[in-house]
Amino acid sequence: MSKGPEPLRIAMLGTRGVPASYSGFETCVEEVGARLAARGHDVTVYCRVPHIDYPEPTYRDMRLVKLPTIRSKHLDTMVHTLLSSLHALGQRYDVALYFNVGNSPVAWLPRVRGQRVVLNVDGLDWKRKKWGRLARWYLRTCERWAARFPHRVVTDSRRVQQYYRERYGLASTYIAYGAEPQDVPPGPYLSRYGLEPRRYVLFVGRLVPENCAHHLVEAFQELSTDMRCVIVGDAPYSEKYIAELRGIADPRVVFTGYLFGDGYRELLANAYCFVETSEVGGTHPALLEAMAAGRCVVVNDTPENLETIGETGFHYGGAIGAADLKSVLERLLKDRVSVAAYGLRGRERVRRHYSWDGVTDAYEQLFRELTTDGR
What we know:
Blueprint: E1 9-13, H1 24-38, E2 42-49, E3 58-59, E4 62-68, H2 76-89, E5 95-99, E6 116-120, H3 133-146, E7 152-155, H4 158-168, E8 173-174, H5 188-192, E9 200-204, H6 213-221, E10 228-232, H7 239-248, E11 253-257, H8 261-269, E12 273-276, H9 285-292, E13 296-300, H10 303-309, E14 314-316, H11 322-332, H12 336-353, H13 356-372
Helix pairs in contact: 1-13, 6-11, 9-12
């Protein structure tokens, strides 16, 4: 009887680590890493102290390597990824999977020891308003390095894939982000925030200017409704913007701060509809998760957002902002039948195109190709 392919030794670097409690990168690491481990692969996740305080040496069968960093807006990620890359040199990994284009300057290090390197670049990070001129220059430079240092670049959006092909002549590998359909009944978190099922509009994301939560807060001011508006999220280094949001919000708007795990899933599953206002980025995890939960979605009309929803949601003109979003919400708040129907369409789209099992299949196939191609 022939033996199957040997298990791979896989390192996952460049995020805060697991258990996931911050962004889509961490969720991707947890969901893909745990599935790869369940398939028999040896998976190591590099975790950033003090952001990750999970005390055990393993999580969901993934080995955790916990290393420090410098708590700084500009140095936090890069310092930890550099330390992780140096540590990886002493290991016998087959594949090093990095996340975040800003980590590309160190993505060559595992190659010194013959390890294959994959970099998930996400969206076009230099477009984010939180970055100053120098940081934007650095991130644009990182894109060029991303086209040179890894063996393969992964993009989770066809639009971002097209950008790298046209600008750098790079044939990246498209692997979608994932989500899993789920239903969560109303429970303690709705009670905590004084919410009723299907009686609130939901936003989830980091509260930074380029995510445009102000579009929703401003639009809600002009809506005549007794529904609530729930803003889930926070952000380090964005105190001024968050204060401005709270300053313009009326009493119907609820700010929960960061909310993960059971609380996040409960609020997501019981919303009337979900609004994705971000004007930058690739495939937004919270948007996919809202679709998976069967929620009708409304998105800022960026090419990446429109790619994600296909024909299963609604959009507004991001260049117009709150005024156009208000018009879309005004119609939807009066049309429960369409809201329910589009929610079901979105869930089916996730089943077909964005399952975590399918995402894991694609990463596993890519890793196999890289470790058997003889390069």
